[in-house]
């Protein structure tokens, strides 16, 4: 089992590569996590580099195709760092990007806490704690040269490929009675291509994904806190981007969000 000192050292190594835009093949053996729990212990230290409170959480690998692509057997939770938020319509540099993709997602902001407990949370309980729904774009990235080869514990340690994200305005229309699994989601590269999907890509339903992360964190002794936001996974196949592209996430009645790449 990794002790706190080694978990912190592994995190500092990964965050150093994140800050510099460089990569490594794998975490050195003496610091390498062997289990998901050890991966999360390393990940927790990512907040040592942030001067702001935790912005929220992301879920990676919420589709079978995504899990197979990166060779994991289930979803993974990662932390959203406030300093990595991008304004709607903002600009993102691809100079140091490894993945070079954009993902269109549902985001949920919590209005009240969901503390850890022995019994699993049900979907209805989780949704009652949600204050608002938002359209979102995630721009993930990895600090590994081959993120498909390192396995779930190291991917979790590397913050589940968290990087940049864009959060749109809170949805004003009534959304709670809408079947989000069937709700159409469109990703557009302005003037170039259109990518269609729906909430069903996200563990079958974004609300199922949201409940999954609440219970994943509960099992780790971690609460979802009021004001924190969760992006629940991409509703479309990740969209490859290049410099000059503008990506628009269109959730129909639930609004739009956009970002430009240079």
UniProtKB/TrEMBL annotation:
Q: Give residue ranges for domain Fumarylacetoacetase-like C-terminal.
A: 98-259
Q: Does the keyword Lyase apply?
A: yes
Question: What GO CC terms are in its UniProt record?
Answer: cytoplasm
* Pfam families for the chain: FAA_hydrolase
For the keyword Lyase, the answer is yes
| GO molecular function list | 2-oxopent-4-enoate hydratase activity
List keywords of the entry alphabetically.
Lyase
Q: At the top level of its lineage, which domain of life is listed?
A: Bacteria
Q: Where does the chain cross the membrane?
A: none
Q: Which PANTHER family match?
A: 2-KETO-4-PENTENOATE HYDRATASE, ACID HYDRATASE
Tell me the protein's name. Answer: Hydratase
In which organism is this protein found? Answer: Mesorhizobium loti R88b
